[in-house]
Design goal:
CATH architecture of the largest domain: Sandwich
Order of helices and strands: EEEEEEEEEHHEHHHHHHHHH
Distance between the termini: 66 Å
Structural class: alpha+beta
Radius of gyration: 27 Å
Low-confidence stretches: none
CATH class of the largest domain: Mainly Beta
Mean pLDDT: 89
Helix content: 40-55%
Largest sheet: 10 strands, antiparallel
Number of helices: 11
Number of strands: 10
Length: about 290
């Protein structure tokens, strides 16, 4: 039933009415489908991203049977009592449909990492991995109907409208609670991790304070203050420590001469490298290497 670039499926017995209707927002893709069904229809689906399948309407005496394996008996999906399913990334799902003439459904795929960056808060990994199949929620269904109407609208409203609806729906389904208030004057844990990971990955080049501030949604001065309050050191010192850790790894290999270690870790020459190393580590690179060879 669903044709998505990051999704694999094998289906039969479905005829799409009106073609694909899709809207893409920041990290979210939403499809609305009107489908006529043969006397028997079915399919197998697996997607690389987490997704929501929401049954908006159906006609016929039967009910779609949702299964986690082809051999399972499955459970019926009903547009009134059990219209919503959350399917984690890479989880296989089978659907068998008999005695159903028409199905209308909304599919929402989302990039969990991108949404976490937008919300400045990671989605609980356990909730991302746990399927929620065949449940009902009035708020989610109300949002789903608004999203479906926006996708079908030949003159859609501002992107922020559909994006906000889809984001609200995902937050509702994933039961994303507001994070507990952080200690005053420090970075939130996701902000701090984002900044330190970025520094570690890019420590060999000059990192502008603005780059780090942009990662956390703060001004450069505010970021610098909160980073130091969180770690006990300025961003520049954190970067220098990351460079020195790279230097230590090279020194331990006993393959590279000191001049090459200095060049590989971004120092202008061996003398500069030795001066900075002694300041931060308390001894020279040569003595540090020798002590670890004894």
């Amino acid at each position: 039933m669903t044709f998505h670039p990051r999704m694999q499926n094998r289906i039969e017995g479905f005829s799409v009415m009106g073609g694909l209707r899709r809207r893409c927002w920041n990290g979210i893709t939403a499809d609305i489908w009107d489908v006529e069904c043969a006397p028997y229809a079915g399919g197998h689906y697996v997607a690389r991203d987490p997704r929501l399948f929401i049954l908006l309407d159906q006609r016929g005496h039967g009910r779609p049977m949702v299964k986690l394996s082809p051999e399972a008996s499955g459970a019926p999906q009903d547009s009134n009592d059990s219209p919503i399913s959350y399917i984690p990334a890479d989880m296989e799902l089978w659907v068998d449909i008999a005695d159903v003439q028409y199905v209308r459904h909304l599919d929402i795929h989302f990039d969990a990492d991108m949404l976490g960056r937008r919300l400045m808060e990671d989605i609980n990994p356990k909730k991302l991995k746990d399927p929620q199949l065949l449940f009902s929620d009035e708020r989610v269904m109300a949002l789903a109907e608004l999203i479906a109407a926006e996708i079908a609208n030949p003159q859609p409203l501002h992107d922020l409208y559909g994006d906000g609806l889809a984001l609200a729906l995902i937050i509702n389904v994933m039961k994303m609670l507001k994070a507990p208030p952080r200690r005053r004057g420090t970075l939130a844990i996701p902000q701090l991790r984002r900044a330190t990971d970025f520094i570690t990955e890019n420590c060999m080049r000059n990192i502008r304070l603005q780059e780090l501030a942009d990662l956390t949604g703060l001004s450069p001065s505010h970021f610098s203050h909160l980073f130091k309050a969180s770690t006990g050191m300025a961003p520049h010192d954190w970067q220098m420590n990351a460079r020195l850790e790279r230097a230590k790894a090279l020194l331990l290999s006993d393959v590279y001469p000191l001049t090459e270690v200095a060049a590989e870790t971004g120092f202008s020459d061996q003398a500069h490298f030795t001066k900075v190393f002694r300041k931060h580590v308390g001894t020279t690179p040569a003595r540090w290497r020798k002590a670890r060879q004894e």
